[in-house]
Design a protein that fits this description.
Layout: H1 2-15, H2 23-42, H3 51-82, H4 89-111, H5 118-141
């Protein structure tokens, strides 16, 4: 399971170049791999790239990416208040694109951050729209809906 999760996360980093410099993505990858290691050594071993392993990866990925997205927004808000170096918007958008939009939406409400900048909000809602369309297409292709 650790091998599968690591392969997927490294492949995502290779495909999306902005992830290579995104510290929060590295944190996300570490959390997912640690969760896989824990489950593999304490509960069960799943075959590499098996259906069950991929579904478990998706669960760990979504939980972790949303948690890390909230941390990224918190860090950016803290830096904005202190006048320090900010988290690049591309990093925040990449976390949203990878499934952290729920955490981003929650963080925007909790920290009152990135709620006024229209270009940022437009990109956020555009990515959310495309993700919903993509999920609908996948579910339709798999004959689930």
């Amino acid at each position: 399971m650790v091998v599968t999760f690591s392969a997927i996360l490294i492949a995502m980093m290779a495909l999306f170049r902005p992830l290579q410099k995104n510290r929060f993505y590295v944190l996300h990858a570490a959390l997912v791999i640690l969760a896989a290691y824990y489950v593999e050594h304490h509960f069960f071993r799943a075959p590499i790239f098996a259906y069950k392993t991929i579904l478990l990866f998706l669960v760990f990925h979504l939980i972790s990416i949303n948690f890390v997205t909230i941390i990224a927004y918190w860090r950016d808000k803290k830096a904005a208040i202190a006048g320090e170096w900010r988290v690049p918007e591309i990093d925040l958008h990449m976390l949203e694109l990878l499934g952290g939009w729920c955490g981003a939406f929650l963080a925007q409400k909790i920290f009152h951050h990135k709620t006024k900048k229209k270009s940022f909000r437009a990109m956020f809602w555009l990515m959310l729209f495309f993700q919903v369309i993509l999920i609908w297409f996948i579910l339709k292709t798999l004959h689930i809906i």
